[in-house]
Amino acid sequence: MRIRLSLAVRLWPLMLMSVLVSPALGEPLNLDRLIAEAVRENPSLRELRQRVEAARSRVPVAGALSDPVVQFESSNIPLNSFALNRSPITGNQVTISQTLPFPGTRGAREEAARERVLTAALQVEDREVAIANLVKQVYFSMAFLDRAIEIAEQNETLLEEFVRIAESKYAVGNGLQQDVLKAQVSLSSMRDRLIGLRADRCRAAALMNLVLNREPGSEVGRPEAVELSLPTSDSNGYRDRAFSTRPLLAGIEHTSLMWKAKEREALGQRWPNLTFSVGYRQRAFMTFDPVQGSDFLSFGVGMNLPIYRGRKQNRLAAEARANVKAVGARLETARARIAHQIEVLTIAMQEHRDKADLFRTAILPQARQSLDSALSGYQVDQVDFLTLLDSQVTLLEFEIDAYGHIIEHEKKRAELEAVVGVRLEDQTGRGR
Description:
Blueprint: H1 2-18, H2 31-41, H3 43-63, E1 69-75, E2 91-100, H4 105-171, H5 177-212, H6 235-245, H7 247-268, E3 274-283, E4 296-303, H8 313-379, H9 385-420
Antiparallel strand pairs: 1-2, 2-3, 3-4
């Protein structure tokens, strides 16, 4: 009986540690600051932003007139002397011409370029949402791994104590070798698990450095404790918000507007462009010149003849109309995919929420009660050592599983935010 009481005195402090969360050392990571850093520093986002600037530079080019043409010519030069002052019809002429497209064509071309800019800008916004989701996924993984490592280390300490107790009892003839071996196997298994958890934590930190564009091996820090957030809507509410706010869908709509503008441009090109010109002709003064050596001024207008519109402009317009329909189908597909993703994510969130609540209200209290009962029974020789060991290991495993469901719920919520395209608000109105 004295051995049993001594065992209880030695184990209770360790068991108490196993159900408490150790405070994080140092200032914990702030998720919002990490997201801001990733959005600012991520090289893929910088590339997309430069593509937007490149597309924006094309807008004034698309709406500009073609360059005027300056032409110089010397005409009517006699072949017998190549002199420029022997004939009144010989002279030098400078002509300036400018082509004006059919009205509306230039505006349609510029509008198509603007829609391309808006599409590219919305792609940046959608990528920012995806980057934020990636940061959250890694952040929550790190939070889970930190907690799992913490619990596993506490379990390792407790199992070491179990091994010492089993060895001590076996040495004095009050225990079984089976108890010693079982405790040693459990301890080795826990140490193996710790090796894997620590390696996973290092990999998660490396991925975070990559997303943040930091140097490999940079210190990442420790995430804040993650709590279970409250639902803000149902799948229909999330779907309606996604259809109205998701940058991806808005970008597809602007792509459709771009092709509609290209169709108007192609239809405008079926009509002639007008080219206006003005010329100045310099002539040498000659006594027998009927106009007494006066210089000449000339005006002209020309136009192209779009006689191949059936093979060119009409085909370009048909291409644009086909692309409008293709983009419409793409938009419909994207909406259906988003609706499906929202449905799946809301189901998964509810599943993890229900399981987290079950662990909090039933499984963990029952596991702690089972451990208390096993310890009490062990003290009066009604429960063997292996049952006590199994009860303690099971409790710590349940603690990891319970926190895992909280983490998975928050991961699914982060995915949902990426699908919807905006950050969701909890019931207090605070952005997460």
